[in-house]
């Protein structure tokens, strides 16, 4: 998408969001299919899982950065299940009659509608205390699921080397990739979902930053990178979502792991010790049918970093001239 079209796509979306009260942003006839809504907590069936330790006060930074207990603590407090929320239905036909229809498991970071469209993938290199490869954080299980083998760190570091990216001090050990899945929010909010999902991402990054400050570390999120490369790495179709932020994860010296921490698993990446293969299977999300929302896809494509280049500078397009400009009248002179 060239720069004028990208700028126009962004302006069209901003205008649609601002005027949604008088001009609905939803497609004509749109109604959420509540019976086929996606699961807020997804997982990959038939994968090797590494259960993570729950948060404890002893989860403190070790020499050099993160270890498994600290990573487990941060993931649980930011994106894991922390609360059970009752779903109470007030009967419209009988006064003062209420019934509990079910419950939902919520995370610590707030989310519009409790949809949780931000999903997390750990890109772990050979120096990580988990097997090399790409791991999906199954928030409902509080576990890492290995969905690809190999070393993905060189590919992530290469994606960060854009004119708009800041690759100084990028760790060799790993990164946390923040992925948005549009359908998890769009099934309910349609085209308005992209606006809400960016709030969701910002809330998660804010929570991660607070945790880092509390533990004396730096979140240092990266927002400029080769979007297409990282989307391919996690197996994400750009029409359905993408990587929106990258968090560096420098690993602690493995000799500094506390005695109460779990033993480090084998780092053998399997038969292919080279670069990580892309993720080929999406997590189970429960919905039988999904759909694309062109306005969401367009604004996401317009704001993505192009391969081999930095973020676009979206200058506001000038309106096309429809009439010839008339010359100004000559100044009046005294008679």
TrEMBL record:
InterPro entries: Bacteriocin_Proc_Enz, Nitroreductase-like, SagB-type_dehydrogenase. CDD domains: McbC_SagB-like_oxidoreductase (cd02142). It comes from Streptomyces muensis. This is SagB family peptide dehydrogenase. Residues 315-335 have a biased composition (Low complexity). One of its GO terms (molecular function) is oxidoreductase activity. NCBIfam families: antibiot_sagB. Residues 256-335 are annotated as: Disordered.
